[in-house]
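Project standup — Tuesday

K.O.: blocked on the structure for the chain from last sprint. Re-posting the sequence here as requested.
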Amino acid sequence: MRERDPDEFSARQWPDWDFWKDGRGGRRGRGAVVAITSLSSLFLITRITDIAGLANDPLRWPALAFVVGYGVSCLLGPWFGPLASRDRRIAIVATMYALGGTPALLLATPAYLTDLTYAIAVGLMVLPLRFSLPLGFAVAAGQVGWMQVRNGRVEWGPVATLVLVTTALGVVFALNFTIGQLRAVREQVRRMAVNQERERVARDLHDVLGHSLSTMTVKLALARRILESATDPAPALAEIRDLETLSRQTLSDVRSTVSDYRTVSLANEIAGAGVALRAAGVLAELPTAADDVRPGLQAVFGYVVREAVTNVLRHSDARTCRVRLGRDWVEITDDGTVPEQANSGHGLAGLAERLTSVSGTLDYGKAPGGGFRVIARGPAEGSPA
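H.V.: unblocked you, prediction finished:
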């Protein structure tokens, strides 16, 4: 048996009218339903006239009282029922059935059971369809049996009214509940899309600003040392010019990240890593080209190189850093002390998410010969990247 999708409508579900709680729009919806019910329940005036004309029947006055009470319940049920708890919904529907059916029992007139169409409508509105639909059809079946026993024949007009109202309103409310379910799913998808976009921007800004600010910090420290120890300001000015260029590029990257137009080049990230590592006094062993890496992995491997080198600059006392590339893998190793936060950083967690999006994996930790190692692997050759 196929397992039901929780987002699919089921006749077992309790109708959800929570959207009626939303301010004026909800009150208008409830008011419209009550207005429609009020107009349709004017039919009860005919029933009151009929019962009042039974001058020789002493039970006409109790029957009239029940009809009036039933008319009031037809106004209050659609207003309070949809937002009531499950127990109160059951109580409301049971009260309406009792008020609407009692006059037929008091006066022994099975045709009066047709008045229960309003109770059936409210039941379909607030109860699961698996209960409310059989209840409506049971009233029609009971009316047929009672007519046959009491009169020896069946008046099919009142019976047809019960059957048609139950069937038509059952279909209408089923469609309404399905539409409500679809609205809820759409709202959930919208929230998920917003959350995913927030996560993307946060992850990309972390990657952009973390690397750029780390490089800026290293270059500023180098410029300061040059100015403090040398009379010639030319080397310091060169570093400051690099800082100016880097800050402009960072600003451009931030704008592109927010607008989702930013692309990452593995070759550019390797070149930028070389500049940052040399400025920090770290010996960089870098590949001369990145053309052998599969095109579908170029961008994500660029992020891996950026984040791994940023960690070397920020968290490590490494003297050397090595980047190696393969067709579907990249490895970054250094000889520094393994940072304690290596297993909990947001950057590495973001990289793992990026690799997962291309069916890849990310491994990091202490290297066999000491130091720290990050290895990213893409899917096997022939698999979509």
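K.O.: great, moving the ticket to review. The first helix runs from residue 23 to 40. The longest strand covers residues 320-325.
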